[in-house]
Amino acid sequence: MLGRWKEIVVLWFQGKRFEDHALEISALGELEQFQKIVTMTAEELWRAVNPGRKNLPRHFEKRTQLYLRGSIKEGESTGLSLQARAEPRSKDLTKDLFDKEFEEVENAVNAVLEIYKTQENDEPLPYNLSQVTLQDYQKFGQTLRKDESIKLSKTSVLKPQYVEVTHRTRKRLSRFIEEKHEDQVDVKGEVLAANVREGYLQFQLWLDEKTPVTVKFSPEQEDQVTEALKNHRSVRLRVKGRGEFSPLGKLENIEGVTELNLQAAGEIPFDETARPIEDILMELASEVPEEEWDKLPKDGAKNLDHYLYGTPKE
Fold first, then answer.
1. pTM for the predicted model, two decimal places
2. How far apart are CA 165 and CA 149, in angstroms?
């Protein structure tokens, strides 16, 4: 059978339990969890690059599948080699084609290492991952005891890469899952659903095709909401109020609505804080040296067509 194996990452289980190069059966669940976050990360990376496509490529999950292959590695503790298998989609079995088949799983594992590394160093997350994926990141290592860790080790062409997943790592990740914040918002979208029952006044505001936000409104604002819903194909609703954001900065819902405005779809709202265009033009003009202004023809306004298109002067 044609194909090739490649070691993608080594998971080193560190601690007294693993000093004899043995792994308790209870710790095998960590391998399944690691596979889960690799596959989910690969999918999110792919969707970020292909925002307009709904379906993943054929055999995508298979190409991100890792296998426990070979004997337990000896070293500082118990090491397990996780490998991927490539079967090129072409009969031309060149090395480049083989390497291309490993790109998705390798990119995903590199991202996993980078994410855990930022938490080891108490830095911001480098990727905008979904809450579901982050929750699975936080679950990896949950069978570890306080004096144990899992070191993810990857050998690159330039230098070895590794990062340790500890209780502290997982605790730092939890900040991005549990903490939310509020801020003032000014957004516009399409109203596609509304609940006008007393005590349940809310509607769904779609900021784009993939981003719905729940908005709570008052009885006095009901007419504007129902009109926006009735004419949703041609009308957009601008909402100002207090928004609740996820730890990653995604707007999830809006309460305390202070202003609702109906606008025609495609209409650009007037920004009262924008600088007048004449001020901007004056500022730009002031940056031009006087000697450059002196080069302009004195009759430029009268004979503009002459200087632009070569027509006879008036």
1. 0.58
2. 6
